[in-house]
Amino acid sequence: MRVDDFSGPREHMLSAQLRARGIRDERVLAAMARVPRHEFVAEELRSHAYEDHPIPIGKGQTLSQPYIVAVMLQALALDGSERVLDIGTGSGYQTALLAELAGEVFSVERLASLAHSAQEILHRLGYPNITVVTGDGSRGLPERAPFDAIIVAAAAPRVPPALFVQLREGGRMVAPVGPAYAQRLEMIEKQNGHALVTNLEKCRFVPLISDEDSLREK
User: Fold this and answer.
1) 83-105: pLDDT as tens digits
2) What does pTM read for this prediction?
Protein backbone atom coordinates (compact mmCIF):
# COMPACT_ATOMS: atom_id res chain seq x y z
CA MET A 1 0.00 0.00 0.00
CA ARG A 2 1.43 3.39 -1.01
CA VAL A 3 1.69 6.21 1.53
CA ASP A 4 -1.10 8.12 -0.23
CA ASP A 5 -3.50 5.13 -0.11
CA PHE A 6 -4.47 5.24 3.56
CA SER A 7 -7.62 7.39 3.36
CA GLY A 8 -9.88 4.31 3.18
CA PRO A 9 -8.42 2.49 6.21
CA ARG A 10 -8.37 5.77 8.16
CA GLU A 11 -12.04 6.45 7.43
CA HIS A 12 -12.95 2.89 8.43
CA MET A 13 -11.08 3.40 11.70
CA LEU A 14 -13.08 6.55 12.39
CA SER A 15 -16.47 5.08 11.55
CA ALA A 16 -16.24 1.43 12.66
CA GLN A 17 -13.79 1.59 15.56
CA LEU A 18 -14.46 5.03 17.03
CA ARG A 19 -17.86 6.54 16.21
CA ALA A 20 -19.61 3.16 16.34
CA ARG A 21 -18.15 2.49 19.80
CA GLY A 22 -19.14 5.77 21.39
CA ILE A 23 -16.39 8.27 20.62
CA ARG A 24 -18.29 11.56 20.26
CA ASP A 25 -15.69 14.29 20.82
CA GLU A 26 -15.44 15.88 17.36
CA ARG A 27 -12.06 17.44 18.14
CA VAL A 28 -10.64 14.00 18.93
CA LEU A 29 -12.17 12.49 15.80
CA ALA A 30 -10.84 15.34 13.64
CA ALA A 31 -7.35 14.96 15.10
CA MET A 32 -7.36 11.22 14.43
CA ALA A 33 -8.48 11.94 10.89
CA ARG A 34 -5.56 14.33 10.38
CA VAL A 35 -2.65 12.52 12.03
CA PRO A 36 -1.13 9.86 9.70
CA ARG A 37 -0.95 6.85 12.03
CA HIS A 38 0.95 4.85 9.39
CA GLU A 39 3.92 7.24 9.72
CA PHE A 40 4.51 5.98 13.25
CA VAL A 41 4.95 2.27 12.47
CA ALA A 42 7.60 0.31 10.58
CA GLU A 43 7.26 0.16 6.81
CA GLU A 44 6.42 -3.55 6.85
CA LEU A 45 3.53 -2.96 9.31
CA ARG A 46 1.95 0.06 7.62
CA SER A 47 -0.81 -1.99 6.02
CA HIS A 48 -2.00 -2.78 9.59
CA ALA A 49 -1.66 0.77 10.95
CA TYR A 50 -5.40 1.53 11.14
CA GLU A 51 -6.56 -1.86 12.41
CA ASP A 52 -8.15 -2.24 15.83
CA HIS A 53 -5.23 -3.72 17.75
CA PRO A 54 -1.86 -2.68 19.22
CA ILE A 55 1.17 -2.65 16.90
CA PRO A 56 4.74 -3.47 18.04
CA ILE A 57 7.20 -0.60 17.74
CA GLY A 58 10.32 -2.31 19.10
CA LYS A 59 11.99 -2.59 22.52
CA GLY A 60 8.99 -4.56 23.81
CA GLN A 61 6.71 -1.52 23.37
CA THR A 62 3.51 -1.07 21.36
CA LEU A 63 1.39 1.56 19.67
CA SER A 64 -2.00 1.30 21.41
CA GLN A 65 -5.13 0.40 19.45
CA PRO A 66 -6.97 3.44 18.05
CA TYR A 67 -10.07 2.99 20.22
CA ILE A 68 -8.16 3.06 23.52
CA VAL A 69 -6.20 6.14 22.38
CA ALA A 70 -9.49 7.87 21.53
CA VAL A 71 -11.07 6.93 24.88
CA MET A 72 -8.13 8.44 26.75
CA LEU A 73 -8.12 11.63 24.71
CA GLN A 74 -11.89 12.05 24.97
CA ALA A 75 -11.69 11.71 28.77
CA LEU A 76 -9.19 14.58 28.96
CA ALA A 77 -11.74 16.89 27.26
CA LEU A 78 -9.06 19.24 25.88
CA ASP A 79 -10.07 22.61 24.45
CA GLY A 80 -6.78 23.60 22.80
CA SER A 81 -5.30 25.84 25.47
CA GLU A 82 -3.84 23.23 27.80
CA ARG A 83 -0.33 22.39 28.90
CA VAL A 84 -0.18 18.58 28.75
CA LEU A 85 2.24 15.98 30.10
CA ASP A 86 2.47 12.81 27.99
CA ILE A 87 4.07 9.83 29.77
CA GLY A 88 5.43 7.18 27.40
CA THR A 89 6.14 8.83 24.06
CA GLY A 90 6.62 5.48 22.34
CA SER A 91 6.15 5.91 18.60
CA GLY A 92 5.02 9.54 19.02
CA TYR A 93 1.52 8.96 17.59
CA GLN A 94 -0.41 9.87 20.74
CA THR A 95 1.96 12.80 21.24
CA ALA A 96 1.06 14.10 17.78
CA LEU A 97 -2.65 13.81 18.58
CA LEU A 98 -2.11 15.77 21.80
CA ALA A 99 -0.28 18.45 19.81
CA GLU A 100 -3.40 18.77 17.63
CA LEU A 101 -5.67 19.04 20.67
CA ALA A 102 -3.69 21.09 23.22
CA GLY A 103 -1.55 24.20 23.37
CA GLU A 104 1.75 22.70 24.54
CA VAL A 105 2.86 19.07 25.01
CA PHE A 106 5.75 17.73 27.09
CA SER A 107 6.41 14.04 26.45
CA VAL A 108 8.64 11.76 28.54
CA GLU A 109 10.08 8.49 27.19
CA ARG A 110 12.34 6.17 29.21
CA LEU A 111 13.94 4.51 26.15
CA ALA A 112 16.31 6.88 24.38
CA SER A 113 16.04 5.13 21.00
CA LEU A 114 12.26 5.50 20.95
CA ALA A 115 12.46 9.12 22.10
CA HIS A 116 14.90 9.91 19.29
CA SER A 117 12.81 8.13 16.65
CA ALA A 118 9.61 9.84 17.79
CA GLN A 119 11.33 13.24 17.78
CA GLU A 120 12.42 12.73 14.19
CA ILE A 121 8.92 11.79 13.02
CA LEU A 122 7.22 14.63 14.93
CA HIS A 123 9.72 17.14 13.56
CA ARG A 124 9.21 15.87 10.02
CA LEU A 125 5.43 16.18 10.40
CA GLY A 126 5.81 19.76 11.60
CA TYR A 127 4.72 19.87 15.24
CA PRO A 128 6.36 22.91 16.90
CA ASN A 129 4.48 22.63 20.22
CA ILE A 130 6.06 19.35 21.41
CA THR A 131 9.06 18.82 23.69
CA VAL A 132 10.30 15.22 24.02
CA VAL A 133 12.45 14.35 27.05
CA THR A 134 14.24 11.09 27.86
CA GLY A 135 13.67 10.10 31.47
CA ASP A 136 11.67 8.17 34.09
CA GLY A 137 8.04 8.94 33.30
CA SER A 138 6.88 7.99 36.80
CA ARG A 139 8.68 11.10 38.07
CA GLY A 140 6.94 13.35 35.59
CA LEU A 141 8.58 16.63 34.66
CA PRO A 142 8.50 18.78 37.81
CA GLU A 143 10.47 21.62 36.23
CA ARG A 144 7.61 22.15 33.75
CA ALA A 145 4.72 21.59 36.18
CA PRO A 146 1.90 22.18 36.82
CA PHE A 147 0.02 20.57 33.95
CA ASP A 148 -3.63 20.98 32.98
CA ALA A 149 -3.77 17.37 31.82
CA ILE A 150 -1.61 14.24 32.08
CA ILE A 151 -1.90 11.07 30.01
CA VAL A 152 -0.02 7.86 30.83
CA ALA A 153 0.56 5.16 28.20
CA ALA A 154 1.97 2.41 30.45
CA ALA A 155 0.46 0.60 33.43
CA ALA A 156 1.54 0.63 37.08
CA PRO A 157 0.01 -0.90 40.24
CA ARG A 158 -1.01 2.61 41.26
CA VAL A 159 -0.92 6.10 39.80
CA PRO A 160 2.59 7.52 40.30
CA PRO A 161 2.29 10.03 43.19
CA ALA A 162 4.64 12.52 41.50
CA LEU A 163 2.26 12.80 38.56
CA PHE A 164 -0.72 13.68 40.75
CA VAL A 165 1.37 16.33 42.51
CA GLN A 166 2.22 17.87 39.11
CA LEU A 167 -1.44 17.98 38.02
CA ARG A 168 -2.99 21.41 38.28
CA GLU A 169 -6.00 21.86 40.58
CA GLY A 170 -9.06 21.08 38.47
CA GLY A 171 -6.95 19.14 35.98
CA ARG A 172 -7.46 15.63 34.61
CA MET A 173 -5.19 12.62 34.32
CA VAL A 174 -5.88 9.38 32.44
CA ALA A 175 -3.80 6.30 33.28
CA PRO A 176 -3.99 2.49 33.15
CA VAL A 177 -3.72 0.97 36.62
CA GLY A 178 -3.20 -2.63 37.74
CA PRO A 179 -1.25 -5.78 36.84
CA ALA A 180 -1.03 -7.16 33.29
CA TYR A 181 -4.04 -9.46 33.74
CA ALA A 182 -6.48 -6.97 35.32
CA GLN A 183 -5.83 -3.38 34.29
CA ARG A 184 -8.39 -0.62 34.29
CA LEU A 185 -8.25 2.77 32.62
CA GLU A 186 -8.81 5.48 35.22
CA MET A 187 -9.66 9.14 34.83
CA ILE A 188 -8.45 11.10 37.85
CA GLU A 189 -9.68 14.64 38.50
CA LYS A 190 -7.90 16.83 41.04
CA GLN A 191 -10.48 18.54 43.22
CA ASN A 192 -9.44 20.46 46.35
CA GLY A 193 -6.20 18.50 46.32
CA HIS A 194 -7.98 15.14 46.30
CA ALA A 195 -8.33 12.53 43.55
CA LEU A 196 -11.80 11.88 42.14
CA VAL A 197 -11.46 8.61 40.21
CA THR A 198 -13.70 7.34 37.42
CA ASN A 199 -13.15 3.90 35.85
CA LEU A 200 -13.39 4.12 32.06
CA GLU A 201 -12.51 0.76 30.47
CA LYS A 202 -10.75 -2.51 31.01
CA CYS A 203 -7.43 -2.33 29.18
CA ARG A 204 -4.01 -3.87 28.70
CA PHE A 205 -0.86 -1.76 28.49
CA VAL A 206 2.83 -2.52 28.69
CA PRO A 207 4.29 -1.99 32.19
CA LEU A 208 5.52 1.44 33.25
CA ILE A 209 9.31 1.27 33.51
CA SER A 210 10.17 2.98 36.79
CA ASP A 211 12.98 3.17 39.32
CA GLU A 212 10.41 3.26 42.14
CA ASP A 213 9.85 -0.19 43.70
CA SER A 214 6.15 0.41 44.47
CA LEU A 215 5.44 1.03 40.79
CA ARG A 216 7.01 -2.17 39.49
CA GLU A 217 4.79 -5.09 38.61
CA LYS A 218 5.35 -7.98 41.02
Assistant:
1) 999 999 999 999 999 999 999 99
2) 0.94
Type of residue numbered 148: D
Domain CATH number, residue 117: 3.40.50.150
Q: How confident is the model at residue 5 (pLDDT cuts 50, 70, 90)?
A: confident
Supply the range of the domain harboring residue 186: 3-215
Quick one: pLDDT at residue 215? 66
Given a contact cutoff of 8 angstroms between Cβ atoms, the answer to whether 146 and 165 are in contact is no
Question: What residues are labeled active site?
Answer: 64
What is the DSSP annotation of 85-151? Answer: EEE--TTSHHHHHHHHHSSEEEEEES-HHHHHHHHHHHHHTT-TTEEEEES-GGG--GGG--EEEEE
The total of structural domains in the chain comes to 1
Residues in CB range of 108: below 8 A, 6 or more apart: 85, 86, 87, 88, 89, 132, 133, 134, 135, 136, 137, 140, 141
The single-letter DSSP state of residue 181 is T
Cα–Cα distance between 103 and 91 in angstroms, integer?
Answer: 20
pLDDT value of residue 182: 86
